Amino acid sequence: MYEWNEMVQRMVDWLEEHLTENPVLLKMSEQLGYSPYYCSRQFNQYTGMTLRDYVWTRRISRAALELRDTDQRVLDIAVKYGFSSQEAFTRAFHKAFGMTPAAYRKTPRPIPLSIRQEVFSPYHYWIKERNRMSEVRVKPVEIKVEFIPAHKFIGIWDIGAADYMSFWNNGHSCDEVCGTLESMSNHVLPGQLAQTAGWFYRNGKKGYLYGIPVPLEYDGPVPEGMECRVIPESEYLVFHHPPFDYLKDNGAVMKAIEDTAWNYDPKAKGYAWDEETKQDYQRHFPEGYGYAVLRPVRKV
Questions:
Q1: Taking every annotated instance into account, which residue ranges of this chain make up the domain HTH araC/xylS-type (predicted)?
Q2: How far, in Å, CA of 157 to CA of 155, rounded?
Q3: Model-level pTM?
Q4: Which are the contacts of 155, defined by CB distance < 8 A and separation ≥ 6?
Q5: Contact predicate 298/288, CB 8 Å
Q6: 3-state DSSP of 49-69
């Protein structure tokens, strides 16, 4: 069960590693041990995209980030990502984003970048491994205080969603939202993760949010369908678990953090919750940061 989720994820991983080369179907199928036809068919079934389309969208998105973040010549970027000429790259870029590479480099704006596909999740891994005995890898929850200055938050606040999954099942396109926010990653508030989720409160009801924190002075464009709100400065209690194996331990780590965060009495550290006019943050970067829930507090 779910063997093909894992196999298609291996295809995605292979393609991501070879985007600047010539990731031909035959070479990939030889590496994975399946026929080119079968690889192509299964990839399309599990991702909803052909291999050719996936490679094209990921190349043009990677190229866009290099236009934004480097001084490389447009021609060099075009050749690096497999385009036969600068003209071919310009046509492809305009088709994807409605503007030329030169115009985007001069005035970067939010664009819907293609994001890496994920078709093999911790749930699938748990199904695969549930009958095997394994050691407990969850570490004790760290509780610390962090000050976050006043800033702006660009994103979506959905009062009808309670968590990550219900948010994306409530009419928001994960690919479109995450891809657009990825194109704004150069504006992220220093010291914060790029794409951040969390919870907010309205008339006693709890909703879910997703977006990016940016400096208070940010006055750039706000993507269509998103809002930009000012978030006051605050101290936060941070409930944190260090980096972990996403596939094997994600569920257990998240449960440990959230059980602690939602049942903790802040008086133990001389604080009270201060969530009425602020919002909680959720940081999830298993390999680099780990997992954390941040709740705003004020001194008692």
A1: 9-107
A2: 7
A3: 0.82
A4: 181, 209, 210, 211, 212, 226, 227
A5: no
A6: CCHHHHHHHHHHHHHHHHHHH
Between helix 36-47 and helix 3-17 the angle, nearest 10°, is 100
User: CATH assignment of 3-106, given 1.10.10.60, 1.20.1250.20, 3.30.70.1150, 1.20.950.20?
Assistant: 1.10.10.60
Which residue is associated with the tokens 């959720």?
282
Least Cα distance to 68 among 105, 17, 38 occurs for 105
Contact 6, 120 (CB under 8 A): yes
CB-CB contact of 179 with 135 (8 Å):
no
Rounded to the nearest 10 degrees, what angle do helices 36-47 and 25-32 cross at? 90
Two domains, one topology: 3-106 and 142-299 = no
Task: Output the tens digit of pLDDT for each of the chain's 300 residues.
Answer: 567 788 888 888 888 988 888 766 777 887 777 777 778 888 888 888 888 899 999 999 999 999 999 999 999 999 999 999 999 999 999 999 999 999 999 999 999 999 988 887 665 565 565 555 455 578 999 999 999 999 999 999 999 999 998 999 999 998 899 999 999 999 999 989 889 999 999 988 999 999 999 999 999 999 999 999 999 999 999 999 999 988 788 889 999 999 999 999 999 999 999 998 899 999 999 888 999 999 999 999
Q: What is the CATH number of domain 142-299?
A: 3.20.80.10
The pair of three-digit structure tokens given for residue 223, joined into one six-digit string: 């993507």
